[in-house]
Design a protein that fits this description.
The protein is built from no helices and eleven strands. With 118 residues, it is mostly beta strands.
Amino acid sequence: VQLVESGGGLLQAGDSLRLACVASGNIFSIDAMEWHRQAPGKQRELVATISHSGHTNYADSVKGRFTISRDAKNTMYLQMNSLKPEDTAVYYCYAKYYSDSYTYLTVWGQGTLVTVSS
């Protein structure tokens, strides 16, 4: 199973950006999906989560600015509005899923860089 993120880039403060994460491989079904980020010199932190049923949670630092969503085709999105320089980080997607042999597993994407200038 593989997660591939896309959509990162160089932006200015106040801009908007949408990240996508596509899951592929021997997936029976995806349970929860998450976005994490790691800023330079800092630990990786949880940004947002979305359950199989669509229930969402956000870090306080992004509430009201970021929106996580997913579709029926194993793709997750992160809409980021009103970007701030402190949002600069490598953004990773993460999924908990059942394989086609019904084994519960987890997987990380390779990350996509978002850089926000002031």
